[in-house]
Amino acid sequence: MTQLRDVTGDPWNGRTLEWSTASPPPAWNFAVLPRAAERDTYWNRKQRARATEGVSAQAYQYEPIEMPKNSAIGFVNAFFAVVTGFALIWHIWWMAGVGLVGAFVALLAFAFRHDEEVEISAEQIAQFERRHQAEVAR
Amino acid sequence: MNIAVTIDDVGKDALASASEAGPAPKRIVVAYGFWIFLLSDIVMFAALFAAYAVLVRATAGGPTGVELFSQSSVAIETACLLASSFTCGLMSLAVNARRRDTVYFFALVTFVLGAAFLALEIREFADMIARGAAPQRSAFLSAFFTLVGCHGLHVTAGLIWLAVMMAQLAIKGIRATVERRLLCFALFWHALDIVWVWLFTVVYLMGVRP
To answer: What pLDDT shows up at residue B7?
Structure first.
């Protein structure tokens, strides 16, 4: 089964830019913001690479990318919303209070986090891209 | 023949358009997202206004707006809220000028004016309920308490938000996230003001017409 896994991110030789990144894509989606100069940008890029025997593998200058930090706030607040909803339907007032206070406290904890973002270093992105290129070439 | 040019051939200057500059700054994205939220909030108020307009004559033999509404109390409420919107604007200016003490001062004034509005509204509600004009008395009163109470709940949430933001300002200082949240708060507060202007017109001014 493992040999059927697609490692290229482009199993159907696609034409458009969404096929140009790995599959599954990294958290930052694209290592370099793709520039679309025409329709079927990715296709033309591949044609050109084929014509030049793949010499056009450019060395990109990767830049660090800022990403929002992962957070459990959505799940936690959905949990308290369910508690509140259940309690309101069945008129269990103390439980509704617990749900509302819980949601509010969770939101406060989220709002007072020290770092909201993580910076993914250029080195890390370059490493991922190199690994991906190696997998594609294999 | 391959007449198409690959992206790698095109010079960077040739592509310098707005979208090529990358995603919009975060301040713009956040404010845009918050506008979408505000619009959805206004859709909800529109539904409540429609319900009120339909039910305003359905008093079921109970008290009508003319008998219930106190013009002077509502006038003071309106003045408080409009003034708090003005001081909120001054607070935004102080944030932009990065003068923290001025931000605290105008936040406090905004908070006090908002709290005064809320206190007057709660007193008005309590007074109506004491006179037998509770939400369950008639369809008109159900719609009235839902519409005006919903706005009051928004103001309450806004006051809590403002208090939390002042704590964040004290702990985190004026930094990008705090600035964006204060921007969203200002949008929220002004939107509540706009809703109140409609409310004042539709409920209180048109309500006392004979």
So the answer is: 43
